[in-house]
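QUALITY CONTROL LOG
STEP: pairwise intake check
CHECKER ROLE: data steward
CRITERIA: each record must contain a sequence immediately followed by its C-alpha cells, with no blank fields

ENTRY 1 OF 2
RESULT FIELD BELOW
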Amino acid sequence: MQQGRQEGRQQGRQEGRQQGRQEGESALLQKQLERRFGPLPNWVNERLGQATSEQLETWGLDLLDAAGLDEVFKAH
C-alpha cells in the first residue's frame, strides 16, 4: 500500500512537470507569435491551449520561416 501511494505521488509529480513544461512552451510560442504578427486572433489562442508538446515544437520551428499565421498552423 505504501509503495502504491509513493508510485502515485511520483506519477503525479511527473504529470505536473509535463503539464508545466507544456504551458511554458505554449506561453513562449504565444509571445513569439504576437511579436512577429501582432495581436493574435482567438483561434490561435485556442489552438495553443489544446496543443501537444509535439505540435508546439513544430509550430515553433515553422514560425521561423512563415510569412503569416496560416503558414505556422498549416497541416503537416
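ENTRY 2 OF 2
RESULT FIELD BELOW
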Amino acid sequence: MSANRKGDRRERELVNRLDEAGFAVMRAPASGSATTRDLPDVLAGNGDVFYAIEAKSSAGDPIYLTGEEVEALIYFAQNFGAKARIAVRFDREDWYFFHPGDLHVTDGGNYRVKKETALTDGEDFAEFVGRSEKTTLDDL
C-alpha cells in the first residue's frame, strides 16, 4: 500500500474517532496537493474547543514534519481561531497529540516525533477529547 493511501486511511480513522467522540469534524480534501493554500489535514470542534490538526503516521520510524508544514498549520490555526495540534500515530499504537511548540526541532529546522516520545509525552486520545486527564508520578 502506498504511503499516501495509508496516510489517507489514517486521516479518515482520526476523523471517525473524533466524530464518535462528539466533535464536528472534517478532513480537508487532498490537503497539501489539490490546492496552493496550506490547509490542515483535519478541522474539529465541539462548541468549546476547536482544533486544526496535521496528522502523520509511521510504521515505527520517527515522524518528521518540515518547518514549513508546522508554520502553515500555526498560521492557519491562528487565523481560523483554532488550536494547532500535531497528531501522530505509530503502527499498533493509538493517536497522540502535541502542541507544535512541544516538538523537537532538528538542526535543519524540521520537527521530529519519536515513538517513545509520543508514548511518554504525547496527549493520548482520551485526554485530547476531554475524557480523562494525564496523571504523572510527579502528581502523586
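INTAKE CHECK: passed for both entries
DESCRIPTIVE NOTE, ENTRY 2: Strands lie at 24-27, 42-45, 50-58, 63-65, 83-90, 95-98, 104-105, 111-113, 123-124.
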